[in-house]
Amino acid sequence: MIRAFFLLASVALAQEAPFDILITGGRIVDGSGNAWYRADLGVRGGRIAAIGALRGHPTRRTIDARNHIVAPGFVDMMGASSEPLLENRDSAESKLRQGITTMLGGEGNSTAPSAKWPTFDAYFRALEAKGIPINTIHNVGAAQVRRQVIGDENRAPTEPELAKMRALIDQAMKDGVVGFSTALIYPPGTYATTAELVEMAKVVGRYGGIYLTHMRNESHAVLDAITESIRIGREGGIPVHIFHLKAAGQDNWPRMQRAIDTIQGARDLGLDVTADIYPYIRNGLGLISLIHPRHFGKGAKPFLDTLSDSTVRAALRKEIESTTDWENWYRHVGSDWNNILVASVGGSLDKEYEAKSIAEIAKLRTTDDWTTFFDLAAANSVSVNPKSMNEEQKNLAFRTEWVSLCTDAPPTLITATGAHPRAFGAFPRVLSHYVREEHVLSIESAIRKMSSLPANRLGLHDRSRIAPGLAADLVIFNP
103, 364, 448, 469: which sits with the fewest CB atoms below 10 Å from its CB? Predict the structure, then answer.
């Protein structure tokens, strides 16, 4: 009976239209977490048409995948912004060369609503007209909405302003964003209260959206930040996703297990909470983030203009060296300027500073570390990579079933200097380092974290698994 079934199936396939692509002999890892198996895969009209023994079936193109893995296209759970694709579509190569076929854009800021793109509908039309080579979906940024209504001021919105903010969120959801997102360590997002964000969540909930967050704290108060995130989702009636989960700062590394336990506890109670990480122990941020966000309550430029005052510098140094009631990245790296690497500089600053620590740049400039820090911060065009994490917390996260993967980087031209390596290497690093070298993950588990897990979070149920009828977003690679 089995032989007859396969014979009949082969006859039926022979009578069908040719495949557009026939991928033969590969080890299929289907994205669900199931063990790999060997089979051929036929694609027609952008969809997976058949899986099985398909050699000899008519096809327009054949790809020999012997000694290769055939997997669903990967999903970047935090791709920062898709706007670089409009500027130069070749920037998509930084994603595609990693096997990423779908990216999520938006954090605290988002491309819309803005003066350039008043609505996401207008922005999406621009992307479609450009013809970008990667699937993109978007969040609307809570800080973006706040800035459109009340600017950069550190104050609560009035009731009419809150109504305008809700209306902007509502329009974004109608235009097709997946949810709303926050970056609560960066002004003006940091000025939003929990209650304000709950009001945004309630609007998103009417459309079945989700809340995604760069939490208010990722270090000494990470557990409180997780609790706040869960509260926003619970009171707003929507799922929660935590961007790039971490316990930053040498003194806080033991908190990572407690952070995971806290989220698992919420899940055990039936609350839909997930997270992602990137596979590096250095994070990336603007250098001015080393200054307490309360100083930017009237905007960045007015405050940075005061950095020429030696009295202001002395007061800020004392605050940075001695206080811990905020996300103090200087303290997170052990109060050591050697652990803060300059990734990129802009404006008139010397490109020679890139790929050097603040301490190394100070020696190059024949000045002290703090003078160098304040001089570079005043330019407001420097991004840095602090060494704030350890490998143990990455391993803990990778072994957690609800943690997916992100780059935390926008599409980036491959000729760019100063980019964090996660912009180009996050997904391959997981496969090479955490799967092949360290055996933290099986290849099946890793690919699930890169495909079906994030796709399910984002409601993309027509792709990121290998099964007949699903979108043929596929990646083939030599393991």
Answer: 469
